[in-house]
Amino acid sequence: MNWRRMSAVLMIVCLPAIGQTPKRMIDRCAQDGRNFWVSDDGETVAVEVGVGIRVAPGPKGTNRAVLSFSDKGHELIQTQDSFEAFQGWLVVSPAAFAVTWNLNAYASYTQLFTLSPAGDITENTALVRSAEKQFVADAKRFCRHPGLNTTAIKWIDDDKLLLSIDAWSSGTCSSNFTEGFILQVSSSSIERKLTERELINLPAVCTWNKVPISNKP
Fold it and tell me: Where are the domains of the chain?
């Protein structure tokens, strides 16, 4: 049984109980990208607006995978030794694309790639890491060792990517602290940092209600 996939399936949506106020959470809209499953025993292929992703699993018993990113005849190949994603989310703009890899129901990480005028594909590792560094500094006010759940939500325009980061629950952190970041890819800079309220109130973003579960009998 695929327990990583089961962890996502077991996320249950509940109706609000009396006296409980649902908390709105940021989510991804189907029209903004392509969601795909990563196969455990075969090759995975996903295509969105011309950008293709291929995931080939490594030898059985290992977490190694070969990732191939392609666009208009150009290709970038990466080998990841500890690849454990069960699901991916791909968002594309004319000059860049981002892939969010879900490790389980609560943890994910994001890769950002740029497309040169000549068609070359290059990963920009610094920009996402810069946003995560700012997030960790803020999250430490609520949790000594915050986790990182980084998601590329959507392209606001051709050059600006909306990123959401939250401190997912772990053995040392039970905070749901969340921030948003608008990344300007052409200048490789953070244009704006958003509070959770500012993030979920942005126009044309999807949200869902998270209902607190009471421990009282």
Answer: 21-209
pLDDT at position 57:
87
- pTM equals 0.82
Q: Which is more confident, 2 or 203? A: 203
129-173: pLDDT as tens digits: 999 999 999 998 888 888 889 999 999 999 999 999 988 766 566
Q: Which amino acid is at 190?
A: I
Locus of tokens 């190949």: 77
| 3 state SS for the chain | CCHHHHHHHCCCCCCCCCCCCCEEEEECCHHHCEEEECCCCCCEEEEECCEEEEEEECCCCCCCEEEEEEECCEEEEEEECCCCCCEEEEEEECCEEEEEEECCCCCEEEEEEEECCCCCEEECHHHHHHHHHHHHHHHCCCCCCCCCEEEEEEEEECCEEEEEEECCCECCECCCCEEEEEEECCCCEEEEEEEHHHHHCCCCCEEEEECCCCCCC
Is residue 196's pLDDT more than 60?
Answer: yes
- How far apart, in whole angstroms, are the C-alpha atoms of residue 59 and residue 81? 11
Instruction: State the Cα–Cα distance between residues 80 and 87, nearest whole angstrom.
Output: 15
Nearest to 56 by CA among 70, 71, 47, 45: 45
